[in-house]
Design a protein that fits this description.
By secondary structure, the chain is an alpha/beta fold. The chain has helices at residues 16-30, 45-52, 69-86, 96-105, 129-142, 154-162, 208-217, 234-243, 259-265, 280-287, 318-330, 332-349, 352-367, and strands at 3-8, 34-39, 56-59, 90-94, 114-118, 148-151, 171-173, 194-199, 223-228, 250-254, 268-271, 292-295, 310-313.
Length: 368
Amino acid sequence: MKKIVFLITRSDTIGGAQIHIKDICISLKKDKHIPYVIIGDSNGCYLEQLKNSGINVIICKNIKRNFNILNDLKAIIFFIQTVKRLRPNIISSHSFKAGLILKVSTFFIRKVPTIFTAHGWSFNDGIPFYKRFISLQIEKILCNRVSKVITVCNSDYKLALEKKVVKEKKLVNIYNGMPLGKYKVKNFKPHKTIRFISVARFEYQKDHKTLIESFSLTDKKNWELFLIGDGPNRKFIEQLVVKKGLKNKVKFLGSKNNVEKYLNKCDVFILCSLWEGFPRSILEAMRSSMPIIATDVGGCSESVINSYNGFLINPKEVYILKNYIDKFMDEFSLIKKFGTRSFKIFESKFTFQKMYNKTLKIYKKIES
């Protein structure tokens, strides 16, 4: 039986890193281990999910996404004190800010094996230059402080080596994974109205503007677009939808805890991000037997094979995106062919059990 402490910054949103931790904690509990999650923010839907799953949660109000020297110093002190009290076998941090807290804390926590999981590097292409530069220097200075660095896609693994962020012997790639459950290739029934869906927080990175502009260019009428998520740019996108005359075609659903329910009812998944790590939302869509249209950023090309189970485009390619949207409306047989392939790729490479088994091997390796 092992005691494992996880550290993550945000509880006010549910992204890939949050779900990753929750799923691993649930499986660790089933395997008679004791997981703890140290998290910032005292409120949020994610915090509620962790507690409902019976996972031990420790809240540190000083752990925040934005940088503040006083807050961050208090967060580091709190984290060190908590670790010394809990005396865990392993510490695992996820996301840039949580990773920074852990790496600095290793100067004072020397005997506990530590892992940093990068859910997309903060110096990926597409991120504003000054942020890339600063985060790269920080990672180069501190990344080798931890026992192991895990990337969730091969492109991030290669980028870490290319930028000399961490020694190769400390680096390992473990693809993100989703529970397979009772999923199987769905029964595709042809219908007139093609339902497109995007699951993404409304912020600059996810580029909903390109998505809406592409749909505004099509002269076809047999479509609906469902948008799941909330965020600071939602109001702007709502106004853009009205301006483009698409109010009756685009549905804003807000944040949802049961995303799979909506994916199962839709036909085509779209993600227009300017940068990414390895989007979990694409894996969810593949599990629901969906063809994918995605920007060719980060590790997207490791799950979406161009012209096989979807189409890859460059960021902000409004007209090319519009053409692929039209193509799926013209050929329902393509939805069936690509969707079936998506599920088979998911089943063979991206299940949670594969990810979990590889993660446990890392736990055993760094403890020995």
